[in-house]
């Protein structure tokens, strides 16, 4: 079991320090390289490539070569042990799932949870960060209430989180947030990279505001 007094592994600590995991999800991963450059230039240092995107494993390997070592590249929607192994082999620094169920992994694994029982079970299993998913319909007040009886859990809300919600979730007790569509928008499929840069700066500023 981990709690807020237990030091985090370096990967999870870096995610908590940055406050944002940018989720890259699109029909194809062809646009992820350009999107990643914009996000990193804005100050986002953790990227999650979802395995539902065609070419995701190749994208993870490519991003790992493309980006500085200070930028974390992980795999999302990791549902099976085969998914996990392939992702780690491709260079993923962390694994994220919408559900629980995977066994021990060679890199940090962040399981998906929804109810207090699931959150506590993931906490008991030793997950360094626990994904709350889908979080958008629950709202920051749910997290604040959840952390009343479970103050030692490190929770990363994901799913349906708008840019305007980032600071609210962090103030409510999230260690980081996972943000996909509201941040990346259509940039991975030919949309404006200039608009993406603006959204990314807003996201980074929201983290700084919440922690000021």
Work out the strand percent. Answer: 5-15%
Model regions low in confidence, pLDDT < 50 over at least 5 residues: none
CATH architecture level-2 label:
Alpha-Beta Barrel
Indicate the CATH topology.
Answer: TIM Barrel
Describe the protein in words:
The chain has 9 helices and 9 strands. The protein is an alpha/beta fold and 212 residues long. It has one domain: TIM Barrel (Alpha-Beta Barrel). The strands form 3 sheets. Strands 3-2-1-9 form a 4-stranded parallel β-sheet, with helices on both faces. The chain has a 3-stranded parallel β-sheet with strand order 6-7-8, with helices on one face. A two-stranded parallel ribbon has the order 4-5. The radius of gyration is 16 Å and the shape is globular. The two termini are 30 Å apart. The model has no long low-confidence stretch (mean pLDDT 96). This is 2-dehydro-3-deoxyphosphogluconate aldolase / (4S)-4-hydroxy-2-oxoglutarate aldolase. GO terms for molecular function: lyase activity. InterPro entries: Aldlse_KDPG_KHG, Aldolase_TIM, KDPG/KHG_AS_2.
């Amino acid at each position: 079991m981990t709690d807020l007094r237990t030091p985090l592994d370096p990967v999870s600590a870096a995610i908590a320090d940055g406050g944002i995991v940018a989720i890259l999800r699109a029909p194809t991963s062809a646009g992820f390289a350009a999107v990643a450059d914009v996000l990193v230039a804005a100050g986002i240092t953790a990227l999650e490539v979802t395995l539902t995107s065609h070419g995701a494993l190749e994208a993870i390997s490519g991003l790992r070569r493309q980006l500085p070592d200070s930028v974390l590249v992980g795999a999302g929607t990791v549902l099976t042990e085969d998914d996990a192994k392939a992702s780690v082999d491709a260079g993923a620094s962390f694994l994220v799932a919408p559900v629980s169920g995977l066994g021990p992994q060679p890199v940090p694994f962040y399981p998906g949870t929804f109810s207090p029982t699931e959150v506590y079970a993931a906490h008991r299993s030793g997950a360094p960060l626990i994904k709350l998913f889908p979080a958008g319909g629950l709202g920051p007040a749910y997290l604040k209430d959840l952390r009343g009886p479970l103050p030692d859990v490190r929770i990363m809300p994901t799913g349906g989180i708008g840019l305007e919600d980032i600071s609210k979730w962090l103030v409510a007790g999230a260690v980081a947030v996972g943000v996909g569509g509201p941040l990346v928008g259509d940039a991975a499929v030919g949309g404006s990279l200039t608009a993406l840069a603006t959204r990314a700066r807003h996201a980074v500023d929201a983290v700084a505001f919440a922690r000021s």
